[in-house]
Amino acid sequence: xxxxAVIILNWNGAGLxxxxxxxxxxxxxxxxxxxxxxxxxxxxxSLLVLRDEFPQVKVLEFPENYGFAExxxxxxxxxxxxxxxxxxxxxxxxxxxxxxxxxxMGANPECGACQPKILSYKDKGSFEYAGASGGLLxxxxxxxxxxxxxxxxxxxxxxxxxxxxxxxxSGAALLVRSALYEExxxxxxxxxAHMEEIDLCWRIQLAGHTVDVVPASRVYHLGGGSLPAxxxxxxxxxxxxxxxxxxxxxxxxDLFATLLRRRxxxxxxxxxxxxxxxxxxxGAVLKAHRDFRRMRRLYTTHPSRNLLREPLQRRNIILSYxxxxxxxxxxx
Length: 332
Known about the structure:
The chain contains 10 helices and 13 strands. Helices cover 38% and strands 20% of the residues. By secondary structure, it is α/β, with parallel strands linked by helices.
């Protein structure tokens, strides 16, 4: 068996497959990895495109759309390679992209998961929103990256080319040890989509492993391939899932204070949407909090270790970005 399964989850993405899959097929070392498309019950001509235009690609056919999380869980369970690379369907990869990731995992047995440097497909000299050069959380659970703070993305000038341990690696291109993935429970299907990779990375670290970024590897991510940033559905999932992320992964003793701060900060976000007459996204925030209160009952056990109290997570990114006007990771 080869070392890595590169799994691309697809749902009604025939156009994305035609645009991005050729680079993955051409530039993935066939001695090291197999390229597999897991189709989440597509109703377009995705399966026809795969059969006729990419006969060398292995295909898993699911009968329905299980979402990002459960779709990948089923794909990992069905393939069982030593390592799995979760790759978004809107990612272009250059020659030699996968070798540094595999080498890093081989040289660092404590590393449970890692990501490449993620650059913008539309502006290849700039970092891409979803992951950039490694993801972190601040003390309130807000995600940010080396190379991206909120909506501000930096040009890639090699300033974040050093490998480092991070809080989370992007699901756009995430290499993980398959046995560990299953041991910690895989991606949480209750999230459906958005932030489920942060939750996975949190659990990987609670299990005693590290999550790292390996900038010697790079990929180019289109971003927004499923939902645009302004879509209320995306707003809903991001707000709801961020609350679930905190609730399930923080010690019980720290839940009240952290979630109270988040309620206050999310109220400010709601007010900003209202002030701009964006009532659809304002409603999405309210629905996210309402559904969080219902869904938190699903999670009854909590860890004893609080990762948000460790050095990399002690920042207050809201204060730094909006009040101190620090717009780059290196200025924090």
